[in-house]
Amino acid sequence: MPVIVFASPKGGVGKSTAAVLLGTQLAESGASVTMIDADPNKPVARWASRPGKPENLTLVDNVTEQTIIRAIDDAARKTAFVIVDLEGTASMMVVYAISRADLVIIPTSASLLDAVEAVSAVQLVQRQEEAFRIKIPSAVLFTKTSAAIRTRTLASIEAELDANDVPIFKSRIHDREAFRSLFSFGGTLSSLDPKQVRNIPAAVDDAQAFASEVVELLKSQRAAVAAVA
Q1: More confident residue, 63 or 90
Q2: Is the pTM of this model over 0.85?
Q3: Following CA atoms 101, 106, 107, 109 in sequence, which dihedral angle do they give, to the nearest 10 degrees?
Q4: CA-CA distance, 27 to 87, in Å (whole number)?
Q5: How many other CB atoms sit within 10 Å of the CB of residue 206?
Q6: Rounded to whole angstroms, how far apart are CA atoms 111 and 113?
Q7: Contacts with 183 (C-beta within 8 Å, 6 or more apart), sequence order
Q8: Domains of the chain
Q9: 201 phi and psi angles, rounded to 5 deg
């Protein structure tokens, strides 16, 4: 089953938020999901400890550099999707997880400094492709963007990445209160109280668009592999 890895050498770019959004959207669509929290700060585990986690979403957070590959392989045999939230550094655990990925998602904010770190993550994936002699698809996901305007900085970064053939998600994880609220209240976007959290429908639209794009990417990669075979 597909293994989706969230990787970024820089913290604070919305990596864990994007992972939780994807996991909950897939679970609410009826798929079985395992989320592996391999971040020492355990943000996904803290979210999962609050009420409202979907029953068909399993959390694994007791992984180490020695057990990460086994944990991913075990989860892939049991559930339809495996989502791995990695620590924000280039460690052996990160390398091992990427070697098992069907898709590596690299979140970055619309900041030039963060984009440079995202390119470093892309290069790390490319080195693992060479080392393991396998194809590991990856794409950059912009997070914390404005839903109202597309800044010149974002447009410039997108153009630079595109010029260097770095794949970019069309969908965005905008800067929304609802996304932050998941880690305060737990559960999913659909379980948030609109009396407490503003503009939930727009957040749901963003999350659904992101999840749909991930699924389509995985389908197209599977079709491409089948065509070559």
Answers
A1: 63
A2: yes
A3: 180
A4: 23
A5: 21
A6: 5
A7: 17, 20, 43, 46, 47
A8: 3-228 (3.40.50.300)
A9: -55, -40
